């Protein structure tokens, strides 16, 4: 699928437990390391740059049983895990991300109960998790800088942006009652989504005009012009939607135009990753929504994958480096160019 689309980069996450079955570095799975070695080597073989996230919300169960992010030893565990990863894959992986969407799992998993581990410690959970996460990120970053960067030549010095949607905010209107204290009580604003904004199959996801551009410009100005990669951006459809996903095409064209406009206005944007390559299990919605450029038949034991119309449009944009609003694929037969 990556080759069919013509991708030159792909972001994926590692399963901590697949590499360290007990969560700790005293036992490394040779099979787990071999799996990722093969995966990385195959990508590089076809000119696809691997961009690797160390943790995407799936802690080893043993470490979660010990408290996960509320255990003060967590930064040490993660440092040991990161060292194993850098040692085994850092000769080929040059772009590293420590945690995917830290606010989401700290707020929803520790301050709330919509993501694992469902602790719902509304008063301190989000902040305790965030404190541990910042200390953990710093330790992993220093391990790479001090022990690996000089001879591996990789980096984590960029901002990865996951952007899907936005809303209007107000200091006085549309406010909700939140637990006190809590993250959203401290933020203390109301949010509003105009009813005319196009809606996806996910209740939280609407298409917002120019929001990716605005976000990139804001971050560019706030943080003195760092390097950016769009790590996630995408649109959901219902499981029974057909492969002619014109709403997803409209969304991607608008987002890529935002990215191009930001680039032209001085943002150092170096890459864009669609969410997602193929349908997957979504954390809140399971198989109830589909984000893939490729449709996956989950009723088929072989998980048949079929390119949606958006896959052909995305491929054409990659190949031509032009966002052609009039382009309509003549065929839905996907080939490797």
From TrEMBL:
One of the record's GO molecular function terms: beta-glucosidase activity
SUPFAM superfamilies: (Trans)glycosidases
Record-linked Gene3D superfamilies: Glycosidases (3.20.20.80)
Keywords associated with the record: Glycosidase, Hydrolase
Biological processes annotated in GO: carbohydrate metabolic process
A matching Pfam family: Glyco_hydro_1
Keyword Hydrolase: yes
TM region positions: none
Entry similarity comment: Belongs to the glycosyl hydrolase 1 family.
PANTHER family tied to this protein: GLYCOSYL HYDROLASE (PTHR10353), LP05116P (PTHR10353:SF36)
Protein's UniProt name: (African queen) hypothetical protein
Naturally occurring in which organism (per UniProt): Danaus chrysippus (African queen)
Organism taxonomic ancestry: Eukaryota, Metazoa, Ecdysozoa, Arthropoda, Hexapoda
């Amino acid at each position: 699928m990556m080759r069919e689309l013509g991708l030159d980069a792909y972001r994926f996450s590692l399963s901590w437990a697949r590499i360290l079955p007990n969560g700790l570095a005293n036992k490394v799975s040779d099979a787990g390391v071999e799996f990722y070695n093969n995966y990385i080597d195959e990508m590089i073989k076809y000119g696809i740059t691997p961009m690797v996230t160390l943790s995407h919300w799936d802690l080893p169960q043993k470490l979660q049983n010990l408290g996960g992010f509320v255990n003060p030893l967590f930064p040490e565990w993660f440092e040991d895990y990161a060292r194993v990863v850098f040692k085994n894959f850092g000769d080929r992986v040059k772009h590293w991300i420590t945690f995917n969407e830290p606010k989401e799992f700290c707020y929803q998993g520790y301050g709330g109960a919509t993501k694992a581990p469902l602790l719902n410690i509304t008063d301190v959970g989000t902040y305790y998790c965030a404190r541990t996460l910042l200390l953990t990120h710093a330790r992993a970053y220093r391990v790479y800088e001090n022990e690996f960067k000089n001879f591996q030549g990789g980096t984590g010095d960029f901002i990865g942006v996951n952007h899907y949607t936005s809303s209007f905010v107000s200091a006085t209107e549309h406010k909700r009652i939140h637990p006190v204290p809590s993250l959203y009580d401290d933020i203390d604003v109301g949010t509003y989504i105009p009813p005319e904004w196009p809606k996806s199959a996910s209740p939280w996801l609407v298409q917002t005009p120019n929001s990716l551009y605005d976000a990139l410009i804001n971050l560019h100005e706030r943080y003195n012009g760092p390097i950016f990669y769009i790590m996630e951006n995408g649109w959901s459809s219902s499981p029974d939607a057909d492969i002619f996903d014109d709403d997803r095409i409209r969304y991607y064209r608008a987002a890529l135009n935002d990215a191009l406009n930001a680039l032209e206005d001085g943002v150092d944007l170096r890459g864009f990753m669609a969410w997602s390559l193929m349908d997957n299990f979504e954390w809140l919605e399971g198989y109830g929504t589909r984000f893939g450029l490729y449709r996956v038949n989950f009723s088929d034991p072989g998980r048949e994958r079929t390119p949606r119309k958006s896959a052909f449009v995305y491929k054409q944009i990659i190949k031509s480096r032009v966002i052609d609003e009039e382009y309509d694929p003549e065929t839905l037969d996907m080939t490797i160019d």
